[in-house]
Amino acid sequence: MLRDAPPSSIEIQGYENNSKVEVREGQDLTLTCVVANSKPVAQIVWRRGKSEVKSDSIENKVIETEGKRYTVTSQLRIKPGAADDYMGYTCQAKHKALHPEKPLQTTVQLSVLYPPGAPYIDGYKQGETLRRGQSVELICASRGGNPPAQLIWYKSGIQERMAYRTSERLSENIYKFTAEASDNKAVLRCEANNIMAKAPLKTEVVLSVLFAPTHVTISGPSEARVGDRVPLQCQTAPSNPPAEIKWSVGGHQVKNATSRTVESPEGGWITMSNITAPVDASKRSLVVICHGLNMQLTENVVSTHTVNILLPPSPPIISGYEEGQIIPAGSVQKLGCMSTGGNPLATLTWYKNDKKVNSVIKTADKSVSAELTILANVTDNQARYRCEAHNSATEIPLFQTKTLSVHFAPETVKITIDPPELKPGIEATLICDSSSSNPPAIISWWRDGIAVQGINNSSKAGLWGGTVSSLELKVNITQDMNGNVYTCQSTNEALQRSVHEAVNLQVLYPPKFSPPPSSTVVGFEGESLTVGMVANGNPMSIAYTWTKEGLPIQTPGVQRIVSEGPILNITKLTRNDAGVYTCEAVNSQGSAMINITIVVEYGASIKSISENVVVNPGEDAMLSCTVEGKPLNEEHIRWERIGYDMTIKTSTTYANGTSYLHIKDARREDVGNFRCIADNRVANPTSRDVLLIVKFIPEIDKSPPMLRAAASSGERGRLPCRAQAAPRPKFYWSRAGQNLSVNQTSKYLVEYKHIDSLTYESILLIERVSSNDYGVYECIARNELGSVKESVRLDVTSPPDPPLSLNILNVTHDTVTVAWTPGFDGGMKANYRVRYREANNDHYRYEDSLPNSHKLTITGLRMNTLYLFSVMASNALGSSKYLPDLTRAQTKGPEPMPSELAEKAELPSFVIFCIALAGLCLLVVNAGLVAWFIIKKRSKDSSNQNSKSATIEMYAPSSYNDTVTGETLSSVSEKSDSYSNDGSQPDYMDETRKKAASTYLVENSDMPPPRYQKDGTLPHYPNNINAAHTRTLPHPRHNNVVYEQRSRDDQLIGKNNYVTAPSPGPPMDGSYYNMNSDRYLSYPPMDYPPMEFSTPPLPVIPALPTNNGTLRRGTRAMVPPPDVTHHTQHTVKTLHDSSASSGLLNISQVSQSTPKQPQGILKDPNKRKDQQLQQQQHQQSGLPPGAMNHLNSIGGGLQMLGVQNPSPVPMMGGPPPGLVPVNAGGSSLGNNLLIGAYDPSSTNLSSFNASLGYTDADGHLV
Questions:
Q1: Alpha helix (H) ranges present in 817-869?
Q2: Over the stretch 1066-1119, which tens digit does the pLDDT of each residue have?
Q3: Is the bond preceding 1208 in cis, omega lying within 30 degrees of 0?
Q4: Domain regions of the chain by residue span
Q5: CB-based burial label for 903 (10 Å; 0-12, 13-18, 19+)
Q6: 10 Å Cβ neighbour count for 768?
Q7: What is the distance between the alpha carbons of residues 183 and 178, in angstroms, rounded to a whole number?
Q8: Residues in contact with 559: Cβ distance below 8 Å, sequence separation at least 6, in sequence order
Q9: Which of 163, 666, 897, 984 has its CA 20 to 30 A from that of 633?
């Protein structure tokens, strides 16, 4: 009976159960369902969703399988649409073997791709209006579509937002924004699209935004003259709807103003309105207001425009200078210009000769002023300074002009020499040309500080309205005048300022050699030799030529002899270099020659000696030794022989470098080496031995090792026989009276040795020694003088004999070297052992010697200890006995200190005591000095409370035109009565003055302070800058007598000490820059009639009368204050102590005769504080009143300055190097002295720099 079988499986081919099938809308789709292995055939049913599909598009096919089972295949053909999206298709198998409620089935779900629905916009409808600033939210949505639609917002064609969201088949894109004026008439478009859409689906809206104008703009002139009608225009920013414009002019509303509206490209409309406003003379300005109103939005914007009414100013007025007033160059002149009234206020401009210059502008309520500060220089003479005033109301500027009159000193002087080349015997003309000066400059000539008379003084018009001057000087040239310095000084007497230039005469002459100390130079062979022969001449360009014996110097191979100008260098002297050398010096003016002899010394060496000299007994012998060397004489050769008395039988002779040694009656004891030694003390001694041989009968060596031999049975026996003889001996061997047949059989052989010139040895060799061979053998030595016989014994081998002797060779503090004479070695190789002990100790120590050595150094011994030594020998058969402990040696101890050192060892304690005592005394003296200074200072301060102060400072030279003038340090010192007369001041020459290209003297003048560097230090100036060397010289106006009767300008500088100084280059405008005040300053004004001053100047010390010298000053009633840089080398004469009795400086005597100074230039509001600071500095200096004379006496370039109650100069980090504050100790001298010392290591200037300066009201140096 057949049973029913349900299907084993069901599937839709290609798809798993509940899988998704993606298909495009309208595309054909075939689903194949297979139900396998059922019996009977299963029925297949297709369902769409929950509904059964009944269609002709279903095809079924049955196939029979094994076991009469059946497989059914069913195909469903469909064309899906949008409705089939998300729809499930199920294949269901019905069989009677299956439960009706649980059929076998499989399902797939369709995903149908189709385009989205049209998009639509929510949140704004066409025709609605928005306000500017309103928040807007627009939603673009699209339904349907697979995949869901992609939504994009566009604003006026520009993409704005892409982000969107989907929910099932609904897509949304939300666009939020704030409405702006630019959004008016903007088109917002939303596009929907997916892969099934042929083209994007679109929807759009046009926005309408209302907005008021953001601003209004008034355009038109901002300035107008009285009576003008001002055209004005007001324009609004874009507005929707258009804005209205309202005008207000001068506080009154303008009616019936016309306006027009245009569409703005940015959206909205622009409104414009034009009016014309009249200008009223009663007002200084016209205020115009424009209102822009959006009536629909009720918003209002306002703009204001001011029109200034222009009024001309008053003409300018110049103050501060009157026509004809004289301004000294280097001083500060201030010009003021003022203009009042005008709208706007006038603009003031200064012009110098039609060139604009800067000024300081100050503006008040109804006036304006321009102050011009002029640092007067040469360009300001006859310069026209013009002040112009103008504003918008003036077509032509208003102006006033002033013409200045400036006195200026010459900037440079130039010296010309005719002819240019100076030679002895000619007359030269020195021409000095001075640059422009106002008033004309006075020119003078100086030589070595002494004025000389010039000729042909002339002048002509120069630059800047000044005068150029010229002066000649005639000079008869001699060779000794080479290097002489002539100085030309040009002085402006009105300004008391001078410049100068110096010329160093270059007299041409041929070379001349200075005689050398010796005409011979000695050198040593193998060493170097340098010979220098320097000639003096002008020009200094001298060519040197060296010759030897009249011929050029030539050396083969490497050049050993080299001439470098006047220097002849010879490396590794040889004896052939000796000879006469000639040095010739040539310049453009001629030539000179000098000879020098070079002697080459070399060590003595032995060239040859006589061969071995052989003589008969009783004859005389002569030995020779030939030597070469330089120097060489009989004393440089000697003969010696150790242990031989040379005085008994020998004598020497010398001839032509050969020394002969004569030995009288030569005997056997004279045989031996005589040593010839050559030593001329140039090199190490050399020596050679000469052998003297006196014929003698042979002598056989009878020492134990030579008389015994030993050998074992069967071995070779060796019997030695050594003899000395002259002439050479012959050896014979015998035994028991029978001569041995040697060298005839293999039993006996003989070896022969010639040991030295006198020693010979014969060795008998016995082959295969047997017992019969042991015994005594005879050795016979024979020559022409006779024969000698000695017995030699052959024994069997045995232990060695003890050494024959033991000797001490050397002793140190911890070592002893011993040597021994070996005994018979027993026929075998012997070794040796040394035994030693301390003398007071029985304990021995042992040391073995090296093989084949007969000496030993024993180390590790104690100092200053006595040791006993002995030695023994040993070989393979045994040992000998030790020698008795008779050899002794004591090691060295520490060397005793010499008596001289022992005495000096006690010296330090005495020295320490002396130093301590001296230190205590100095401490007491210092304490007394400090107490004395404190008491003296307090009494001085109480007496000088009301004294006026000034500032004193020493500084490096200013660079203003290099014009160094004014009363110098030395001229101040000249007037002090601290000087002795000229007779107490010895003159001496400073060699450095001859090397200078320019020289100057010092004189009274006003000078600016130095250009301080940024760090507050003084700059280093080069010695010569450019060609214009300007210097300071004494003013000719100061003398009242003829030139020959003048005293010297500076007592500290003698006429032979006339020295050079560096010359910084001048600035072109004559100004100088002060680093302390960070501004340009000028000279302090001089004493001119139109100027009035309220503060007295620095006091000046009157000159002492002198009765000698070459430059003499007349007494003057007034001298300008010293503020000049003084250059001098450290050649100051010693001030004699006799000046101390007259006091240091007496300032009170001249305090009333000095000129007035600029008002406020010496004020010091911090005077009391500065005086306290000075008091502390004086107390620290520690110098008594008499110390000033001592400081003057020690020289070294010290200069002393004195002023009454000087206020301190601000110094960064204390006084500059070389300035020492000193308390003078006298009330007439003031509170402080500055002493400057020249320090040659501190600068490249070969001069001492010092100067005086002024301070402003703040105490700063100006």
A1: none
A2: 344 444 344 444 444 443 444 434 434 333 443 433 333 333 333 333 333 333
A3: no
A4: 9-113, 121-210, 216-310, 314-407, 413-505, 509-600, 610-686, 695-797, 799-893
A5: exposed
A6: 13
A7: 9
A8: none
A9: 666
CB-based burial of residue 496 (10 Å sphere; 0-12 exposed, 13-18 middle, 19+ buried)? buried
Distance from C-alpha of 941 to C-alpha of 295, rounded to nearest angstrom: 90
**Phi, psi angles (nearest 5°) of residue 63:** -130, 130
- The architecture (CATH level 2) of 121-210 comes to Sandwich (2.60)
228 CB-near residues (< 8 Å, 6+ apart): 279
- Short-list 163, 205, 198, 167, CA closest to 183: 205
Give dist(CA 625, CA 638) in Å, integer: 10
**Beta partners for residue 899, in sequence order:** none
Angle of the 1167-1181 helix axis to the 907-943 helix axis, nearest 10: 160
How do residues 1179-1218 score in pLDDT, each as one tens digit?
Answer: 444 444 443 344 343 333 333 333 333 333 333 334 444 4
Strands 950-951, 1206-1207: pairing is: parallel
Tokens for 245? 């414009």
Residue 982, helix vs strand vs coil = helix
| 1225 token code pair | 């100790």
Q: Which runs of consecutive H residues, i.e. helices, occur in 721-868? A: none
Residue-wise pLDDT tens digits, 447-477: 988 999 998 889 998 888 899 999 999 999 9
Cis peptide before 40 (omega within 30 of 0): yes
Q: Enter the CATH code of domain 695-797.
A: 2.60.40.10
d(CA 153, CA 175): 7
- In the DSSP assignment, the letter for residue 240 is B
Q: How far apart are CA 273 and CA 758, in angstroms?
A: 152
pTM of the model: 0.39
Q: How far apart are CA 726 and CA 654, in angstroms?
A: 30
For the domain bounded by 509-600, which CATH number is listed?
2.60.40.10
Q: What is the DSSP-derived secondary structure letter of residue 367?
A: E
Asked if 270 contacts 228 with a C-beta cutoff of 8 angstroms, the reply is no
User: Do 953 and 1253 touch, CB atoms closer than 8 A?
Assistant: yes
In angstroms, how far is CA 7 from the centroid of its own chain? 107
- Looking at domain 610-686, its CATH architecture is Sandwich (2.60)
Is 314-407 CATH 2.60.40.10?
yes
Q: What is the per-residue burial (b if ≥16 Cβ within 10 Å, else e) of 822-851?
A: bbbbbbbebbbbbbbbeeeeeeeeebebee
By three-state DSSP, how is residue 1190 classified? helix
Bridging pattern class, strands 759-766 and 748-754 = antiparallel
Torsion of CA 952, 955, 959, 961, to 10 degrees: 50
CATH 2.40.50.140 holds for 799-893: no
User: What CATH fold (topology level) applies to the domain 413-505?
Assistant: Immunoglobulin-like (2.60.40)
Q: Within the chain, what is the greatest distance between any pair of CA atoms?
A: 185
CA atoms of 634 and 660, how far apart (whole Å): 10
Whether the domain at 9-113 and the domain at 799-893 fall into the same CATH topology? yes
CATH class of 216-310: mainly beta
Topology (CATH) of 9-113: Immunoglobulin-like (2.60.40)
What is the Cα–Cα distance from 85 to 110, expressed in whole angstroms? 6
